[in-house]
Amino acid sequence: MEIINRRARMSSLTRKLRRENKTIGFVPTMGALHAGHLSLVEEARQMCDIVIVSIFVNPAQFNEPKDLEKYPRDLTADAALLSEYQIDYIYAPETSEIYGEGFSTYVYVENLTETLEGASRPGHFRGVATVITILFNTMRPDYAFFGQKDAQQVAVIKRLTRDLGFDTEIVVGRTIREESGLAMSSRNTHLSAEERSKASIIYQALRRAKIAAKEGERNAVRLAEIVREKIESESFAQLDYVAVVDGETLEPVEKIGENAVLIAVAVRFGNVRLIDNTILNRQP
Ligand code: AMP
Fold first, then answer.
1. pLDDT for residue 283
2. Does the beta carbon of 185 sit less than 6 angstroms from any atom of ligand 1?
3. Residues of the chain with CATH 3.30.1300.10
4. Of the candidates 96, 88, 109, which has an alpha carbon nearest to the alpha carbon of residue 24?
5. Is 61 touching ligand 1 by the criterion CB < 6 Å?
6. Using CA atoms, how far apart are residues 124 and 132, in angstroms rounded to an integer?
């Protein structure tokens, strides 16, 4: 396993690997690795000849400077974790390596980025789309791995990959959860022990809706209510939104039909904002 800091080196290395007909799998992360990230790494390891994990806390996707400042950074600990997964390269560039002097080109994915997380975090997806475009351009991976936990991000990345003609297949890994059902996230460490145990209400609420849908509930408003009622039963939790939307276009749906439908929530526990989701009619 080698740690690479320079974009030019990452680019020439992946060019060489492509010439050798190696399949390249790429797992983009912001570090502070947990089992959610590592499950993507495992999947990449199984599917690809070469696995590259990037660790880059991307300033362009933070709309709150305080969040950026307090984002956990520990490359040594992350590298130690990754060394157990037989990955080939860690790409850990400095900010100036990604956003050079005079940087002024951003990628904006229309329609998918104004709602849900985009509404609460203006500019977030512009930052995500821009950095992923730069990273894809540098490495030209055959496969790139993203977590279902960030469902809107998945929709945005799939759209941008198609629109910009990247020859990269997007692989989506299931959400990895703590034993309580709480989706793993670097933000969970900011929760108090009590908040952390109560935050499992999010998963319970999503499961209720999923079971109701399985039992025949087709009405999206009713499904949203099921989630809302359960989350609001927990006084520590402050529901930011619950949305029932098409899994690809993220347009609101009224009736659950044949297409994949996403039930997405954002919930605050104190200062910590958590997101989670479940998918109905998951496509194979
Ligand atoms: P981040 O470091 O937060 O940017 O996340 C890097 C990748 O890990 C993204 O594709 C996330 O969707 C994914 N990820 C984060 N948390 C989880 C989780 N609990 N389960 C599966 N994937 C996750």
1. 73
2. yes
3. 186-277
4. 88
5. no
6. 12
Q: pLDDT class for 282, splitting at 50, 70, 90?
A: confident
In this structure, which topology does domain 2-173 adopt according to CATH?
Answer: Rossmann fold (3.40.50)
Pick the CATH number of 186-277 from 3.30.43.10, 3.10.20.600, 3.30.1300.10, 3.40.640.10: 3.30.1300.10
Tell how far the Cα of 171 is from the centroid of ligand 1, in angstroms: 12
Please choose from 149, 175, 184, 206 the residue to mutate so as to test ligand 1's pocket, defined by most ligand atoms within 8 A of CB. Answer: 149
For 20-40, give one letter per residue: b (16+ CB within 10 A) or e. Answer: eeeebbbbbbbbbbbebbbbb
For 31-60, write each residue's pLDDT tens digit. 999 999 999 999 999 999 999 999 999 999
Q: Which two tokens stand for residue 34?
A: 């947990």
13 or 63, higher pLDDT: 13
